[in-house]
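Q: How would the C-alpha cells look for this protein?
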Amino acid sequence: MPMGATADVRIPMRPITVEDYERIVDAGILGDDDRVELLNGQLSEMSPQSPEHAGIVQWLTKRLIRGIADDVAEVRSQLPVRLPPLSVPEPDIAIVPAGVYTRGHPGELVLVIEIAFSSRRLDLGTKAEIYAAAGVGEYWVIDIPARVVHVHDAPAGDRYGSCRQVAGGTLRPPVAGAPAIDVDELFALLD
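A: Here is the predicted structure in C-alpha cell form.
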C-alpha cells in the first residue's frame, strides 16, 4: 500500500502472524530499505527519524548502557521484539532480561521507550495497547512537541492502569542499577 493509504475495510483481511512475518524476513522479501514493523497483524511503515528523535535515542541509550550491568539486563536500541501472536515492533529503546538474543528476538520486556514526534498518536494508542497486552511493566513515550514523558505502568489486559505526565525532575527505569534520567536535561537537548 502506498504511504498514507488505508485498508479497504470491505475486503476481508487475514492478519500476518509473528511466524508469517519471520518467514517473510527470512525469505528476504523485505529489504534493508523497507522500514516496517508488524503491529496487530499488519505491516506498518515506520516514520523517518528527525535529528531530535535520533539525538534523544542516542543520549538515552548511552546513559542506560553505562548504568545497567550486563548480567542484570540488556539495553536494545531500535531492534525488534517478539510479541505473539501478531506484533513485532521495533521500539526506540527496550530494556530486556540479560542474555544474547541470536536465536530469536526477546519477548519479555521490562521497559519500552518510544520517542514521539510525528508518531505520537500511534505510540500513545496502538503501541500502548500492544505493550500493555504483552505485560510490559513500564512504557514511556517521550513526547517531543509537548516536552513531557508519558509514563505508563500497571498493565491490565490491553490497557495501562496508570499514566502520568512528567515534565521535569527525574525518572528511574525499573531495573536494578539503572541510572536516573534527568527529564529537564533530556528536553534541554532540544534547545
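The two ends are 37 Å apart (CA to CA).

Residues 51-67 form the longest helix (17 residues).

Upvote if useful.
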